[in-house]
Amino acid sequence: MDNTPRVGDTTAAHLDRLLALAQRDGRLPSVTAAVVRGGETIWTGAAGTLDGRADGPPSDDDVQYRMGSLTKPFVAVAVMQLRDAGRLDLADRFEDHVPGSRLGAATVEQLLTHAAGVQAESNGPWWERTPGGDWTALASGDDGAAQRFRGGRRFHYSNTGFAALGRLVEVLHGRPWDDVVRTEILEPLAMARTTTRPTGRSAPGWAVHPFADVLLPEPEHDGGAMAPAGQLWSTARDLARWTAFLGGDTHGVVDTATLAEMCEPHHVADDAGAPWTMAMGLGFQQWNVDGARLAGHGGSMPGFLAGMRVRLDAGPGRTAAPGDGAVVLTNTTSSPAMRNLPTDLLTALAEHEPAPVAPWSAAGDPGLLELLGSWHWGPTTTTASARDGHLLLGEPGTGRGSRFAPDGDDRWVGLDGYHQGEPLQVIRREDGTVAHLDLQTFRFTRTPYAADGDVPGGVDVAGWR
């Protein structure tokens, strides 16, 4: 008996239809996808045929496709594993670990966030369609890869920068980057169908003519030194496991705190002053979609497109669940149908199968009652409340509202907003009652400018007038 969690029949029909419409309207030879909720694959689907012919072999969730830049987050996780092991610091210069290139001034963090100013592509022939050379040819000499902008100045997407990170992984491990990814990431996550070259059942790469329903085969090759930017092949089934990883089921590959750090926006991809819709973290992209935050990555190589999106929060209406994710793979060079397809699948899931609502229960800590209620920072009133094991000052996301987590006896630490990372100390009187709260020198008292609250600068002895 198959006990795999599944969506309902009505939801599955809507997801199947979305995929079929994308295949038809986007003229995709084949497309395969998976949806994840709660760390489990709850739906997979496929449409079209691998050769684009009506009677050709169908796709499914175990057919390999080249995933292009979806390779980059795997390299980024390998780098963060090295950071967590104390082998490097994100502030280290690339030169500190890999000498002899023109990229030496770039920091590891800048390379991970595409903010190092490194040129977007290599100097040789179009690397995505021609076999790649070695690191020496890519990086050394006057013709080697270089920086276009001052490091840290702006977001500038760079395939060459991730080639450099792949080389960094190789140098510190003493073996090829893809071997490190295999043993340190893929094997622990049981992603046996993710490889550097196609194996077993795999899709051929096609270009679809812009004005006619005919196909042109695209070349497949080893990218050499540029391979860390887009070499890996995978299946919808394997990438569903990677989607669950990004949703928080890291299986010990990295600490969940490290994953959260990787999903923080570091640099906004500014587009002529428009409200930001995409930002870059440490190897993962983030999107702001109608007030909801998503993370993941896109991918493209000649003959292939890929996309992965995972919800970081429930978003407006809370019909979705944090960790809901979708991944899509297709074997065509270009199609507008792929631009929003992962997000569309997630929207359909939220609409037709809303996230379960956990019932409220009286699971709070009565010991926190002495900290709750109205507090005053000067004449400003702030409400302290308890929710899900956290202390809240104000409403998170509004003004300086922040959540705080326990950090020792009478100590808390800010989790978000203005006070993220800042210490909150409960100050008690000699009799043990709470006198005031000290939030990194900001004093919160029970009444405005309480005379017994040790307010910095003192309180006028004549009081209010």
Automatic annotation (TrEMBL):
SUPFAM superfamilies, sorted: beta-lactamase/transpeptidase-like
Residues annotated as domain Beta-lactamase-related: 16-340
Alphabetical list of Gene3D superfamilies matching this protein: DD-peptidase/beta-lactamase superfamily (3.40.710.10)
Superkingdom of origin: Bacteria
DUF7586 domain sequence ranges: 365-446
Protein's name in the database: CubicO group peptidase, beta-lactamase class C family
Organism name: Paraoerskovia marina
